[in-house]
Amino acid sequence: MPHNLAGRKHGGGDQSDGSGSAPKTHRPKSGKTSEENDKKGLIKKLKDVEISVPIVYGTIAFWLGKKATEYHSHKWTVYVRSATNEDLGAVVKRVVFQLHASFNNPTRIVDSPPFELSESGWGEFEIAISIFFHADVSDKQLDLLHHLRLYPEDDSSAPQSAKKPVVMESYDEIVFCEPSEAFFSRVQNHPAVSVPRLPASFNFPPSGLLIENVHERKRGDTKDHPSNHWFLNFSEADELLKLAAARQQVQAHIVKLRRQLTLMDGQPQQLKPSPGQ
């Protein structure tokens, strides 16, 4: 379900793997400096325009095989990536991963793409993921929850393989309502971002004015990622097909229940004995 990020609203959605709760609504935090407020006031918005950024967040876990110990049985990576494995640095400023309290420094901040971190351990737990955006994109963070899975979901008692990892991913879309002109200009040709077409006569300001060193950063795409061939493929069309299939299943179940009720209504009622019989 898409997450709407706008100046007045922030809608949440359910995770596809069902392992976490929906993101909470966040209001802008107070305490900003006058310089930040002035900069925000200079950001011009595009009315009736939406920008969509499909993302995937998840984990990939490898069993360590003969190297496994009691407290280090798996090596895993948690990440936020583009659904098309493109660089998200033009949209996302940093990602904060909140690990289990048993880890040293459980709050991990990744301030450049690719937005991921790797660890090792023995247990499964919920990872809180907070996505922060550049100043001309949104002043609100997006909070997600993801369940780290180390063992195959279908059969946790089956023999593990050190070559085949356990991958758990969720697809989502972040929708930015009324984006700034600078943001739109910067991503209008970005392969990871879906933008509408504007009139050719529309003049944009130079892109990237409000973001420092974005173009100097190393490309953060995950096309050449070591685990790329294990990543799942997601698309908006696939999600629509899944929703359509689920809707058909619900409709078929409703028809089945109605037939059962009709048969029950048509059966003769057993007469109850009257008092005194």
Automatic annotation (TrEMBL):
Comp. bias (Basic residues): 1-10
InterPro entries: YEAST_sf (IPR038704), YEATS (IPR005033), YEATS_dom (IPR055129)
Domain YEATS: 45-190
Record GO biological process: regulation of DNA-templated transcription
Keywords, ordered alphabetically: Nucleus, Transcription, Transcription regulation
Record-level GO cellular component terms: nucleus
Region annotation (Disordered) ranges: 1-39
Localization per Swiss-Prot or TrEMBL: Nucleus
Pfam families named in the record: YEATS (PF03366)
Protein name: YEATS domain-containing protein
Organism: Papaver nudicaule (Iceland poppy)
